[in-house]
Amino acid sequence: MKISITEHFSELIDPRQWCKIEHSLNDILILCITAVICGAEGWQDIRTFGLARLPWLKTVGGFEHGIPVDDTIARVISCLNPRQLQACFMAWMNAAQTATEGRIVAVDGKTLRRSFDRRDKKSAIHMVSAFAAGNGVVLGQRKTDDKSNEITAIPELLELLQLKGSIVTIDAMGCQEKIASKIIDKGADYVLAVKDNQAQLSSEIQDFFATCRQFNFAGVDHDYHEETNKGHGRIEVRRTWISSAIESLSNAAKWKNLKSLGMVESERHVGEKVTREVRYFITSAAPDAALLANAVRKHWHIENQLHWVLDISFREDESRLRRDNAAANFVVFRHIALNVLRQEKSDKKGIKAKRFRASLEPDYAEKVMAAIF
């Protein structure tokens, strides 16, 4: 991922009056990105990092006036337009990543729990992200005012991504005709979870598979895949059925390029206890049960490899950054840090351990950041 990040962030508009600028926006962005990679979680941390690593920072930026005070860092980052910053991030990732045929791109939202401000009546920020499940990197993000606005944020996010040949997976909130159409228009396929927010569609798919299973899919074109996993004291059996019989739906034509209906049954054995969960899907992909099973399984990587890591390794849910656009913009810095740390392969430890090592070993930090400067 050897693409200069400063090249793509040069389009970001600096809202300050030019005559009052002492520290360039480029320097402040470099400072924030590198500090977050090395473990910084707030403005004072960023300044402390900058003071300790100033000689190296001057090799990748200007820093003619040294390191800005923490209030200057906070003020500048807080006043940046989140959509512009997110667009710059996505432009960088589009240049750095090559979309491969069949790549799974999971789209899901996450709420920044401590970003709400009761005093200023600001609700918590909800961020929708696109995640490449295969190599574990964030491709882009879009801020929404609340979870219900995912429906409008997802198409905006998809529009800015390179998705040709990918399979885009989204949970039931994103099971919308316009979202399906947008994915097809981007040259990708969709796998959309179906629940009660699409009541008629959900009922018809459930009835279809119930009838098919009752008669062992007699005369119905379908494919089946089963896999068993053992670990952590449990056994999980996942069974996947998929069929091209979309004529069983009363209004299949409204879903652009719809080709298949899917059902995934997960059966978990923990000691004597057995639990079952059944989920339903629509997809524009051909009726291949193994492909559907892989897409559904990898969709959960966005929870395990992104949301969980942001909370545990970056302590995102504990962050109290609330000033103007600070919380939304800091998410972008965390995503950059996660991406470059995950791409550094010489150290096999987790993200948290890599950040700690980067904070202690300047040589290792420079090795990590060589990918972006």
Describe this structure in words.
The structure is a single chain. This protein is an alpha+beta fold. The chain folds into two domains: 122 residues, no CATH class; 215 residues, no CATH class. The chain is built from 14 helices and nine strands. The chain has a nine-stranded mixed beta sheet, sandwiched between helices. A hairpin with a 2-residue loop joins strand 6 and strand 7. The longest helix has 18 residues. The mean pLDDT is 93.
Shape: elongated
Count of extended strands: 9
Rg calculated over all Cα atoms: 23 Å
Mean pLDDT: 93
Discrete helix count: 14
Task: Going across the biggest sheet, name each strand in turn.
Answer: 3-2-1-4-5-9-8-7-6
* Uncertain parts: none
Q: Count the domains.
A: 2
Strand count, sense and barrel status of the largest sheet are: 9 strands, mixed
SSE-based structural type: alpha+beta
Question: In percent, how helical is the residue content?
Answer: 40-55%
Distance between the termini: 10 Å
Question: Which sequence of SSEs, written as H and E, runs from N to C?
Answer: HHHHHHEEEHEHEHEEEEHHHHH
Strand % is: 15-25%
List the keywords.
alpha+beta; elongated; 373 residues; 21% strand; 2 domains
Task: Indicate the topology.
Elements: H1 5-9, H2 25-37, H3 43-52, H4 54-60, H5 70-79, H6 82-96, E1 104-112, E2 125-132, E3 137-144, H7 150-159, E4 167-170, H8 177-185, E5 189-194, H9 199-214, E6 222-231, E7 234-243, E8 260-270, E9 273-283, H10 289-299, H11 301-312, H12 326-343, H13 351-360, H14 362-369
Parallel strand pairs: 1-4, 4-5
Antiparallel strand pairs: 1-2, 2-3, 5-9, 6-7, 7-8, 8-9
